[in-house]
Amino acid sequence: MKKGILISSLLLILMVLVLILQLSHSQYKMENETNKGFIECKILNKSVSFTVECQDGDELEIKLHREKGVFDLIVKDIDNNIIYRGDNMEDCQFNIVINASGKYEIILHGRRAVGEFQWQKIESTGR
Fold first, then answer.
1. What are phi and psi for residue 21, nearest 5 degrees?
2. pLDDT in tens, 66-101
């Protein structure tokens, strides 16, 4: 009887561990170039980031296609000032105008997220 309870308890613990590993698992393909980036998420349960050097007047073109799950997006400057924040984002396409030269970080966070995200720097025509 005690052996049966022990085996049942061990199986339950094992099933919980497998469930935790499945929920925290990520599977994605990411491309990152100097002025653009892309990520195709079969499942994303973490944050991924891209860094880009921008000049005053440049724009970041953002495109997101969400099939399921949750995508959050943060764009911040080198001093950690957030210039854009989107929580629980749906399908969208928009541009962010950069007002100061410097490095910027684009952070995409997923929770059981499936879809595609891409960004591209559009250089200011004033140069």
1. -65, -40
2. 999 999 999 999 999 999 999 999 999 999 999 999
